[in-house]
Amino acid sequence: MELHILEHSLKVASIAKEGIQICTHGLIKLAFLPSKTRCKFFSLTETPEDYTIIVDEDGFKELPESEYLSVADATWLALNVVSGGGSATSSQPIGVTKIAKSVIAPLADHNISVFMLSTYQTDFILVRERDLPMVMHTLSSEFTLLRVVNGETVAANSTGVTNGFVKPKLVPRPIIHPLSSPSNMFCVTSLDPDTLPSVATLLMDVMFYSGGFPNNVLFTSASGELWKMVRIGGQPLGFDECGIVAQISEPLATADIPAYYISTFKFDHALVPEENIQSVIGALRTNESTGQ
Amino acid sequence: MSSGYKPDILWSPHHADRYVICDTELSLYRIGPAGSSETKAGALPLSEETAATLLAINSDTPYMKCVAWYPKQEPECLLAVGQANGRVVLTSLGQSHNSKCKELVGKELVPKHARQCNTLAWNPGDSNWLAAGLDKHRADFSVLIWDISSKFSPEAVPAEKVRLSGDVDSGLVVTKPLYELGQNDACLSLCWLPRDHQKLLLAGMHRNLAIFDLRNTSQKTFVNTKAIQGVTVDPHFQDRVASFFEGQVAIWDLRKFEKPVFTLTEQPKPLTKVAWCPTRMGLLATLTRDSNIIRLYDMQHTPMPFGDEVEPTIIERSVQPCSESIISSFAWHPSAQNRMVVVSPNRVMNDFTVFERISLAWSSTTALMWACGRHLYECTEDAGQGVAAAEKDIATKMRERAQSHYGHDTVQVWRNHVLAGGDDPQLRSLWYTLHYILHCSYTENVEQKQQSNKQSLIYSGIKNIVKSSSGTTETRRCWSGSDRQTDVPWYHSEERSLALQLCGWISRGPDIDVEPFLKSLEQEGEWERAAAVALFNLDIRRAIQILNKGASAEKGDLNLNVVAMALSGYTDEKNSLWREMCSSLRLQLKKPYLCVMFAFLTSEPGAYDAVLYESRVAVRDRVAFACMFLNDAQLPRYIDKLANEMKEAGNLEGILLTGLTKDGVDLMESYVDQTGDVQTASFCMLKGSPGEVLKDPRVQCWIENYRNLLDAWRFWHKRAEFDIHRSKLDSSSKPLAQVFVSCNFCGKSISYSCSAMPHQGRGFSQYGVSGSPTKSKVTSCPGCRKPLPRCALCLMNMGTPVSSCPGTGKADEKADLTRDKKLAQFNNWFTWCHNCRHGGHAGHMLSWFRDHSECPVSACTCKCMQLDTTGNLVPSDSV
């Protein structure tokens, strides 16, 4: 397995719902006109609470300074797990479940806070830049560490510093934060960049004005998979607490349930297949109760 | 939305006249000759000769991303369409509904997770297998290999899952692929390897090209590269693969997959299509975005990795199939050579054939060959007998002449023009001139050895001879046979007499006796010329007699009698009717010599322009005439003028005037420039007085070129003969011995000419060998008496009698080279391979290598004969 450390220096920001209009110009530029900015990484998540933006430093310059815009202090780096491929077994769990044991749990054991961003194509594990030596130390045993520099993938040198690191505490991880599962269902899909211009107005409408997609307009999922969400957190979670992703993903991995995991500025969200929602809730509840 | 899709084009694999254009829908076209009865009114012209007819349209499959045509003959026109959601739909065009492919049409191959389908490829062996390359999904595979014949649909799609896709006809849906490859990555392009149908080349696996073997999918060969946007295998060279990325194409050799064999020059714009020509070796066509040219890379002449670091050369060309419009896509015709159809973004199509580069080569003989496409054209000279000699190419003439020993007759030099074919007046004149020069020079030599000054004068041409003329006497001679004094002044000097000799009129001075010359002319039937010469020698009676003879001769011209009659009426009276009529009517005479006869008779003394500038009369006759009738002032002027004319025209008759001097070389240069006849030039200049002209670089150049020509024609014996001939005439050209065979024991040359040096008084008798060293056995070293190496075949010690003729005197040298006195039979010569150093008698070796390619020495595997580049060539001239 390879772990790619991407070259983007990322900022995580939140735009309050009422302040979205002052940012629309920048956001449209980032989302639809990639050639007009030097931005290479951009993510926008809308929740009932706010808009969460994950963007690299070049892209961040496109956003105005405003009272509505709150930014997490840290600079984040994105990690991406690449399986060597070639494995013919098709029973592998999807997404965050797959990396729960190999990445998420070890990082949690070492008290490294992670910020997850699952996409249709891959899962990004965001870690603070300052935690990188620790991350590399933690994961170097399990992964080939590769660093992306100017678009080229090169082997990353582990700093080799081991002194002063806290010994991992291998304790069971109870779920501490309250969970909730809204009734609405989600569709996860991907879009061919070539078709972006033709659906741009529609996407803009969805992003800033109305609430939903017309049926099948994006010519989406073939298998028609639908997903239900589990929201983690009653109070905003903050960025320092570690182990939250691990608390959720480990039980899912054990139950072999695929999931998307999307962290936002305030809360975390796990998407699980709709048919699995009951067993997920059940599994998580079990963990919750043992914790308490 | 349609503006987003650029039309692509796809040829039917089995019907050379069908192709499909795909943009938002599929349109099947048939291509046919324009204006034929078949073409209907709706036919779209593709080129001047061809037009396309729309046969069918299929718009059942929206969101097309890629299309692949079923490779088998049946069912025809079955297409796999890859869609934006990753589904692959089988569809067909223009098929009746009860056709064979009915059960396949409409079949959908659905991946677990929707994402764009980037590429499709049918397996060339098992046509049920279809590989689809998809975009990345977090954990799903990007390459799915489907079996289209599969009816197995394991989990019937639950009803609620169909809500978003709106698909109900689940009976045709296949969701279980045969193989899944490439997890957690996108596949941008793929192709099956034609060499092994179980192998698949994928591009896009994390910036690498990977080869998977379906028999063991956990193993893969891969290489990191950026060039992953498209891969395509050369249909003619199955280990050669082109892959591209933005503006750059990399060419790979699958046998040496670590790095590209080479990359093509980068284009400023991203490439959209790269395709090998299916009808021609090593031709790659590339198209960049928004471009109206197709770039062609010809790798025909690049033997794939030859050495380790050999950078092959590629010929790059670009073609512009349609002048203005940009090209959206193109497709090579599957069978018509170098033909392609291009389509513009607004679906304007163009049928276009890339013109093949023409390569051309001259043979060393006159044949010319050129190749264009698959055609090889040979252009040879018409060798038929009907071809006039004058029309033959100079190379053919030279070959023929070389074979007839042209130039080698050193005794009767004039005969060389006969050897040359005897039909070229210039050569005839040249060789006669040379003959007279050599003849005069020889007689001078014999008679007055002391006069070397005159000797060189003979070679310097009449131009210089008349300049040195002194003591000219002017006489008025009588018409012979009458005592009537002529008023024609007649000039005489020793030099003029020499000039006449060179002209061939007289054989020896100082007496002017042309009778032998007239006799010889009569013999050859040159009646008019003989008559003219007789007349110029003021012998009208003899002239008339000659003309009569000519008229009565076999096939004689009876008109000569009439001319004789007219001649007999000659009167020197200025205002006579005869004179008046003759001077006007002579112009109607066809024969130049008859014409000049009357011109001479009717001219004023000293004003003989009508004779002197009658170009149809041989130069030598005009010059001889001038030498008799022009005074010391007129003569050099005339000769100079004539010589310059000849020089400019490159007329070999002028050699008479210029001699074999620098002037003569100038003239010859102009002749060679016009004719290319280095053969004549070489032989002619070799005849020159030793020294001067041969040193001229031009002359050396002609000689070298002639030798090269003979070599190129494989006339090696002729070339050797020429070299011998040359060394006889030009001793400076004789090469020194450059190769010596040295004895293994004493290291001295085994040639006796070296050992002829006195041996410091040490006789060989002390070794108990009787006889003098020069009579010793030829098979031992003359230096140390140890035996010479043995022949590998007969195991006899080698040695040639050549060594037994030491130190031949210089005087004998020429004689030694004649054929009957060969020093040693070639069969006995030493020969050895420069590689393995084995060898033996030349004759033995020759017969061995006639049947073998390896060295005769056992355990030696040297392929001696193959190392000899000329060894396998046969000389084309026989000895």
Automatic annotation (TrEMBL), chain A:
Domain Cytosolic arginine sensor for mTORC1 subunit 1/2 ACT-like positions: 177-216
Domain spans labelled CASTOR1 N-terminal: 9-69
GO cellular component: cytosol
Keywords, alphabetical: Cytoplasm
InterPro entries: ACT-like_dom_sf, CASTOR1_ACT-like, CASTOR1_N, CASTOR_ACT_dom, CASTOR_fam, CASTOR_mTORC1
Main location as per UniProt: cytoplasm
GO biological process: negative regulation of TORC1 signaling
One Pfam family in the UniProt entry: CASTOR1_ACT-like
Domain CASTOR ACT: 73-140, 224-285
Location(s) in or outside the cell: Cytoplasm, Cytosol
UniProt key word ATP-binding: no
Keyword match Cytoplasm: yes
Similarity remark: Belongs to the GATS family.
UniProt-recorded name of the protein: Cytosolic arginine sensor for mTORC1 subunit 2
Automatic annotation (TrEMBL), chain B:
Main location: membrane
Subcellular location: Lysosome membrane
Single annotated GO MF: zinc ion binding
Any one Gene Ontology BP term: cellular response to amino acid starvation
All copies of domain GATOR2 complex protein MIO zinc-ribbon like, residue ranges: 743-865
Membrane-spanning residues: none
CDD domains: mRING-H2-C3H3C2_Mio (cd16691)
Pfam families: MIOS_a-sol (PF21719), MIOS_WD40 (PF21720), zinc_ribbon_16 (PF17034)
Gene3D superfamilies: YVTN repeat-like/Quinoprotein amine dehydrogenase
Location of the MIOS-like alpha-solenoid domain: 398-629
Any coiled-coil regions, as ranges: none
Cellular component, GO, one term: lysosomal membrane
The family this protein is said to belong to: Belongs to the WD repeat mio family.
PANTHER family (alphabetical): GATOR COMPLEX PROTEIN MIOS, WD40 DOMAIN-CONTAINING PROTEIN MIO FAMILY MEMBER
Protein name: Missing oocyte, meiosis regulator, homolog (Drosophila)
